[in-house]
Design goal:
This protein is mainly beta and 431 residues long. It is 8% helix and 41% strand. The strands form 5 sheets. Strands 1, 2, 3, 6, 7, 9, 11, 12, 13 and 14 form a 10-stranded mixed β-sheet that branches.
Length: 431
């Protein structure tokens, strides 16, 4: 029995398919159309430039190649119910240049008008016979997609690569971004998203600000009005950035990657350390010009050295100074150095005492200041300490001999120079 409903490829379509088979531009299908046959059944012929009477034209929704018949390309479209009242009797496929490449007759299907109380969309299928070697490209409007699962991956996911031309032997579902200067079958579709359906390459125009992830280089790209650019953040635009390596953090030249809080802290510490003094805090025993420091009144006892003036504070850490004691508000590790002059007290030891904990945390170097002489010596302490928050520290000295003022240091009598006398000094740096 002769087939009642069928499609034919027009002469224009045949020429385009022949060109595609011989390696020329791929067959580009962009639209499907429906007509009412001017009120009568139609017989498709190869010379048709279009439908007998077109009532609707819209974008192609999906395309597949029949696995049982590889020469058959099945193109689908959806006729909206709003075109009624009408009766669909014919279909046609149009290339992207507007030429009619295939026509088909269709069982008379009525579409009611909205005034009749029912509006129903009609899904239609057009079977196009082509050579199995022909390359068929379906151009689809992204805004009009209905069967997305049949054509493209969900939006904003990874693409396989950026491509100048269709990749060889693509797997079904392969998705690429067409480059700015494409060739071959991609020549007319720069910057589009193109996917291989297993039967043909289908492409869509990606709207501005579409985001894709390129599996080939691991970078996300954003669609602009002129093409695709890496989706890096800037002072104006948001974007994605990878974490910097420690080497890149130290280099300080990249502006499209981010650094972690740890890297920031390490970098800031290095910058501050490069520009700050060796000490965060310097504390003195300071007296008026011409004054002596004081005496050692007892033998074999530990006396606190006087500290009364904050000479320098970098604000690196919190501390207080009161009654010759320095109280560190912050737990941590500190580098400490102290010097305290002595005269005529015999053997001498200097230590740093944690008054709060009742422990000696630094033991200073031995020194000797011969009794009954005016030669001045110096007790010193140097070391690293680790303390809890709120610990009160006191610099102390022990002597084998008692002596009266100036056992703790003799003034230089600098009243004429207008300079204060400086005796005990304590320097602290937080590590």
């Amino acid at each position: 029995m002769p087939q009642t409903y069928y499609s034919v490829v027009t002469l224009t379509g045949q020429a385009k398919i022949a060109a595609a088979i011989s390696g020329g531009p791929g067959l580009e299908i962009s639209n499907i159309a429906a007509g009412d046959g001017n009120g009568a059944a139609v017989t498709p012929v190869v010379t048709q430039p279009g439908l007998v009477r077109e009532v609707w034209r819209g974008p192609v929704v999906s395309v597949t190649r029949d696995p049982a018949a590889p020469t058959q390309v099945i193109v689908r479209g959806t006729i909206p119910g709003t075109v009624g009242p009408t009766t669909i009797r014919e279909l046609a496929l149009f290339a992207s240049d507007g030429s009619c490449i295939a026509v088909a007759n269709w069982p008379a299907t009525e579409i009611a008008g909205s005034g009749e109380g029912a509006v129903t969309d009609i899904d239609v299928r057009f079977v196009l016979l082509v050579d199995s070697a022909a390359e068929v490209n379906i151009h689809v409007s992204l805004a009009s997609l209905i069967g997305v699962a049949n054509l493209l991956r969900p939006p904003f996911i990874a693409v396989d690569a950026f491509a100048d031309a269709p990749p060889s032997s693509p797997a079904a579902g392969a998705l690429v971004v067409v480059s700015a200067t494409p060739t071959g079958a991609f020549a007319a579709i720069p910057h589009r998203l193109a996917q291989y359906t297993g039967a043909a390459w289908s492409s869509v125009v990606a709207p501005v600000n579409t985001i894709v992830g390129n599996a080939a280089d691991g970078i996300y790209y954003r669609r602009t009005s002129s093409g695709w650019v890496p989706w890096f953040p800037s002072q104006i635009l948001r974007g994605l950035a990878r974490a910097a390596t420690d080497l890149e953090t130290d280099g300080g030249t990249e502006d499209s990657i981010y650094i972690s809080p740890r890297q920031l802290a390490r970098k800031l510490e290095a910058v501050v350390a490069a520009g700050r003094l060796p000490w965060d805090v310097i504390i003195h025993d300071e007296k008026t010009a011409g004054s002596n420091a004081g005496d050692f009144s007892a033998i074999n006892t530990w006396d606190a050295r006087e500290l009364n003036t904050i000479a320098y504070d970098s604000d690196t850490f919190e501390f207080t100074l009161a009654a010759n004691r320095v109280t560190l508000a912050e737990a941590g590790t500190y580098l400490v150095m102290a010097r305290a002059p002595v005269i005529g007290i015999g053997a001498c030891k200097t230590r740093l005492r944690n008054i709060t904990a009742g422990t000696t945390i630094l033991n200073g170097a031995n020194t000797h200041a011969a009794q009954y002489t005016t030669n001045q010596s110096e007790g010193t302490v140097l070391g690293v300490i680790t303390v809890a928050a709120g610990q009160a520290l006191e610099l102390q000295q022990w002597s084998s001999q008692a002596t009266v003022n100036p056992g703790s240091g003799k003034g230089a009598n600098t009243s004429g120079a207008g300079l204060a006398e400086i005796f005990t000094q304590l320097m602290i740096r937080k590590l």
